[in-house]
Specification:
The complex is a heterodimer of chains A (225) and B (224). Chain A has 225 residues and is mostly helical. Chain A contains six helices and no strands. Chain A is globular. Classes of the chains: A mainly alpha (225), B mainly alpha (224).
Chain lengths: 225, 224
Amino acid sequence: MTKRILLGVVAIALVIVAAYANFFVAPTERTMGVIQRIFYFHAATAWAGEMVFFVCFVANLLYVWKREQKYDWLGVTCAEVGIACITVVLITGPIWAHPVWGIWWTWDARLTSTFVLWLLYVSYLLLRTLIEEPGRRALLSALFGIFAFLDVPLVFFSIRWWRTQHPAPVIMGGQGSGLDPTMSKVFFFNVLVMHIFCVFLIVERYILEKLRHDVDLLQREAEVQ
Amino acid sequence: MALFSNTATLLGKELRTEFRSRELLTTTSVFILIVLVLFSFATNPGTEEAREFAPGLLWLAILFASSLMFQSCFLREQANDTLSSLRLAVSDPFAIFLAKLIANTLFLLLTEALMLPFFAIFYNITVWSQLPILSLVLLLGSFGIAIAGTAISAISAQARMRELLLPLLLLPLLTPVLVVSATVTGSLLDRDPVIQWKGIAFLGVFDMIFLTALWIFGQYFLEE
């Protein structure tokens, strides 16, 4: 319990420090101005969200392989936390895009594939609500999760190669891309903070899922008696 | 080898069931026809716009039609619980999937063959000169749709609200097929036709990835 509280305090404190760094430490971007500061939060959350979905994929694989309930709990936990992250990304993106590009949304590869990723995992959660039997729900949703995760790179590249006039990636985009040193320090600090914050959310949500399972079990026992 | 002979037998069964009633083929064809007509009512396109939007529309109609067509694929087995007998009869459960997805691909291709003349007439597009490559695109695209569709229909058949669930799970999964097939078909049916081999190869890669995934995980879809 103490560890959980400690993790929560550290995670929230780090988010506050990261927010301070975003507003006061990072230099103002030359062409975009102050609005660019949303980038640190926006992109870091996107990276963390994608990482969480990867963990979800691994949990799904492990469930199909080992059939242990803990992997099912981890899968649903990561799907929910990932959706939360991607929702934040999809909201902060247009806030940034509107003043800079003049439009809220464009059907470019990263935007569209992020949106499809979000849709796929929302379907994953919906699927879970529509299967009653716990064992079957765990197995079938894990299988759908595996297919959904395999689909994401295909969505990305299909749109990138056939549908796009989008700007090249700023980070790891090859020659001519890159960040100012202070900016990149702030950015990678944000990435770290968002990962820690996600770990905190995952731990809490996982424990909740486990408690739900225990309550369910006790209720059934009570009904039998 | 048992896999192939099992698949062939099961495929024969699937085709026999369908060709006795021809329910799927007729309903899906009429559905595609309705979508083609409704689209022109919704947008009232001129000749140029029709040429530009028609390939995307064709693939959208195929996608929607497939999500209707695949509903019955596993539900049919539930009525008399024939799925358990099938599972006992074959040595590799992948044969059940392989037979169903080949049958689904064939049904989709047949519907497309029936609808292509109407599509060409309604939207003033010459398809004959590009027919060989167009057939290849239709084949690879439909195969991809059938692989994902057969897998997802095995999931949705075991859930509540299955009629709604299948399109909900399947359509976002098929985004890459829609994007690439529509683009490749579009440039093929253009005034100056271009064959986008990269796109055709991409469809092949999509089919391979999902077929491999289905081969590895197929047995778990059908567990009791």
